[in-house]
Amino acid sequence: MTTSITLSVTGMKCGGCETNVTSKLGELAGVIAVQASHQQNSVIVEYDPEKTDIDAIEDVITAAGYHVK
Known about the structure:
By secondary structure, the protein is α+β, with helices and mostly antiparallel strands. The protein has helices spanning 15-26, 54-63, and strands spanning 3-10, 31-37, 42-47, 67-68. The protein is globular. This is Heavy-metal-associated domain-containing protein.
């Protein structure tokens, strides 16, 4: 079973930022799919809750230099 969450993320300014967030989250075990949008200041993450959780996802985004609201 998978879960999807939409996070409000600030600090993404361009497509390169979207790629950075997508790449970093893709390295996290349990993350299945990521859609990042700097225009909408959002990141949609589909993940396996048995392998990761929202806190870990938020930590990766923060470590990449962005802010989760």
